[in-house]
Amino acid sequence: MNIAVILAGGVGSRLDSSHPKQFFKVAGKTVIEHTIEIFERNVLINEIAVVINPAYLTTIEEIVLKNGWRKVRKILKGGAERYHSSMAAIEAYTGLRGVNLIFHDAVRPLITDRIINDTIHMLDTYNAVDVAVPAVDTIISVNGDFIDAIPDRNKLRRGQTPQGFKLETIREAYRYALQDPAFKSTDDCGVVLRYLPDERIYVVRGEESNMKLTYKEDSYLLDKLFQLHSFSLQEQENAFSKLKNKVLVIFGGSYGIGAEMAEIAQKYGAKVHCFSRSMNGVDIASLEDVRKSLQHVAAEEERIDYVVNTAALLIREPLNNMTYADVCNVINVNYLGMVNVALESFPYLKDSKGALLFYTSSSYTRGRAFYSLYSSTKAAVVNFVQAISQEWESNGIRVNCINPERTKTPMRVKNFGIEDDSTLLKAETVATESLKTLLSDFTGQVIDVKLNK
Question: For 215, which DSSP code?
Fold first, then answer.
């Protein structure tokens, strides 16, 4: 019997957050939700126990119920030290025979089935199994401020989790450890190594992406790593099949990314409705235009599942050269239009538990000459998406934005003329990633779409 023990007793002070790091949101879910979900789906895992700080017992109970996990059978109280959490699980299962305990940090949400499976398979041969990756940097040993040794890097590894044990083995190691007045908290394999020195500990190859959320900066890297776990072609086909009979509204769908999205979605059986100034006279800067468009779709289809706004306006001129009418037009389309689409979409997406998608630009991170209004309004898109994704999360609405590199669209051709196609993303590529995002659990994310060179 293989039991995953999710260690979530920490308070995450180094993350500089008001909540423990396991409850930090990334890619639409808390970190611990991502972690438990992987073990819940793994075919070799029979049961899951979560060890939690007692102050958050109710929180984890609510998360388990919300997700409907079937394998989570125990929620245990952790202690002040990490080893107290391990001991809580060991004691909870003492007396059972043929049990493997697979200890895993709740804040390593990118653990893979391959690592879990390798760990479990090696427990057929060994009583203790660790997971580690090679040390890529030179490690130095110091005495005060001076080097006193440089170990051979080829023999060094960086430890990760999970760590797997036969129940009897880890229980015996802790029995000796707790009798030692000099015992200091360490990882579970360290306890076995010190107190059962004759026990061989096998090391499974880990993965660099199996990172631990420790510092605030780690959250940005986790965001991007989740995005890089993209669909395989088969998974994409399976995911896109879920578009059948879904109702998709695209503002700005007459050409470019919006038109490509419409074509792909219709191929998979979605009911797509496109609106734009050139196609049917719909101006997203007009709240009334947006309202009537959505009302029309809702009356015809009786629901709206996804709303996408690809409409944007780029006037590539110095600010002083622009007419005031052009200034107002850019702001009204790029910013006010986005707000209009969000406000009017809310009641429909609340009913369908749907998704809203906007577009930023790679220029949003730094204003440049000739882009003062465009790049600043695109920076506002990111801030707006991040804010309302939090406001609307309790309503079941997911809100994200796509950040494509330079993409060949009619708007770009109008402003830049003829460019080498090999230096530009295809609109179809961005459209495909956009549909993947609509179908994902992500919310509040900036999804980068880059040119593969």
Answer: S
